[in-house]
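Researcher: Please translate sequence to structure tokens.
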Amino acid sequence: MSKKIIVTVARQYGSGGREIGERVAELLGVPLYDKQLITDAAAKGNLNEEIIRGADESAANSLLYTLAMGSNHYGTAMHFGYKMPLNDKLFILQSEVIKEYAEAGSCVIIGRCADYVLKDDHDVFRLFIYGDLEHRQERVKQRHPEIKPSQIIDVINKTDKRRSSYYNFYTGNKWGKYDNYDMAVNSSTFGIEGTAQLIYASIKKLIEE
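Model: Translation complete:
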């Protein structure tokens, strides 16, 4: 690929967003970054990877800390204070790693507010993948047979709420709001492969213009 393109993927739980991102990365021939972000952030901050996995994509609950720092103080220049919540440390470290990925070349990045972290980068294509509740329930049922059918909707709602809270908390924007993204696609309409192909065709056209 001659022109650099960074694809960020925000997604509803059960929409197949990660798999779609994975397929788009394959079609584009670029790296995919998801759980690798945790590993690289842990190494960068000299933190225990297993411990910080529990804080991944979860907002801190420190209201006093947020008020003290101000919402515009998140960024790579912040020094880690002794009492800084682990969630905040992880967000800052992941933001630094995301910027390093983007600087290195084309890639697909799943979640972690990547669209916001790279908001000043002109080579970013921001995606939001959503789906009909019925299809999302069926997908979760197939992928996670350990979850009781009666609990699936609750798991979907709680996961989406966690992702929304995380995004809203750290960006000041609204998760899933259409004008935060370049494209929003209903994966229930096109399926995983169809959605990936649609996104790939759109990016290819964008790159060739």
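Researcher: Any highlights?
Model: The first helix runs from residue 17 to 28.
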